[in-house]
Amino acid sequence: MDPFNVFRVTFLGMLICFNANVECGTSGCYNDYQQCYDANVKIERPQSLRGDWTSFCNAANTLDSCLKNDKTSCGLNDAEPQEYSKYVDIATDSKKSCKVVDCATNGQKCTASLASNPKCTDINNLKSLKLAEGVNCCKIGTNTKTCLQDCGDNNIISSDPLLRQSEALCRGYNDYCSGMDSCFADLYQKGGFSDPSTLCKNVDSFIACIENKCANKGQIGRQTLSKIREVYKDICGVVVKYPTVGSCKSFTSCIENAPSLPGTVTGNIPSFMSARDTDRWCQVAKYYISCGVAAKSCNLGADYTSDVSKVQANTNQTCTGVRGPCPSVLGCLKFGNTPIFRDICPKIPEFVTCTDDALKGCGDGSRVNAAYSLSDVKDLYVETCDAMNDELYQCTLVNSCLDLLLPLNAGDMIYELSDQTSWCRNLNRMLKCTADVSTACKQPKSVHDKFMMLYNKVIKLCPDDQNNSSGGQAGARRYFQLKHSTNFIGRST
User: Fold this and answer.
1) Where does the secretion signal sit in this chain (predicted)?
2) Same domain, yes or no, for 143 and 252?
3) 247: DSSP letter
4) What is the pTM of this model?
5) Disulfide check for 376: which of 324, 372, 436, 492 has CB 3.0–4.6 Å away?
6) What is the CA radius of gyration of the chain?
7) Contact call for residues 40 and 17 (beta carbons, < 8 A)
8) Measuring CA to CA, how many Å separate 484 from each of 159, 165, 444?
């Protein structure tokens, strides 16, 4: 039996269930339920809201009727077989999905915007969209998801590729303001942020442009963009005064693991939106300065050390409350370039121990201030790993749920994986999604209940982190909880 499918009407099933005057499930009490299931199993469940659901929904209704007929002769003392209950859950869940499809498509309640914007439904071409077009697609995807939730089910949301993509890659799209496109277009024309020297040539005018174009939007982060411009003027003053810093190996090797700058992760709405986030600019600034401190070993000049120390002190004052860097966390990342949840499960305890030790060495300023620790979250991950089974891992829908959405940039990953609130948010999403699709993956209700129990434990542990919260940093936004290898919005503006 193909674990990725739910129903397929076989030739034998058609003879059993659709032959004239022959009705499944009429021969006794719990005698025919396996026959009912086998007759209607394996019609492929559409993987998109826009697929043809007719055969799938017909099979779901047939299975439901067949199972009900198989129970008509049962008495009060006839125990319901476990497999019968499992098949009833599958039929019920499938009919519920069909009801949602009917709500969303036949009434054109949810799909009208998607239908009128074909650019937003072609995932292969999403990376070629302009920034403003991508933001519009994000809005459409979010509205479609809300509409489907109002219809009454999350299974289609979890299984639809477009909606999964938009949820992961559109975080923060509401922070877009008209005119940002021109700021990025001008930046790329001037060479972007390809190296420290180019960064220093372009960063002031770029931040000033964002500040001007988004003047009517609220502030994101602890500081104003004007203050951030002052921070980078100080940093760039050192780069200009000591031009050989760019060839210092201690500095360049350190910079390689710095957090990504705004707009440098192509095809990623959050990367663009981070241009407005002053806490993000502060994170990058603190990291660059730590690399500047490391460059003291290159003997760049008599006053270099005192100049870097002054800039560091001023930056720390301006960026008070923003996490400092902890490059040594990089040594704990042993998950590989494309981490899969099943593979990292046994590695999580070792990672947490290693990261805790690294953060101790970097000082409290490198930690996220939250009411719970990485160790607390680790225990919930271990429970989740123990709750998984081979059938769940083999189900396409569950694999989509278990996508860790980790950045590939080392600097971004250092910040993400040393942040317990990021782990909490990821686990919250994965558990709810797995519970929602478990029945479609032919799992009994007990599996759904187990994952909902774990989901509720996560909410209890980190209740403030369920709505893209600041992760212990007031006003900060979570922007890089995504796979940077997946393009969404290209650099074309």
Assistant:
1) 1-24
2) no
3) G
4) 0.72
5) 372
6) 27
7) yes
8) 21, 12, 35
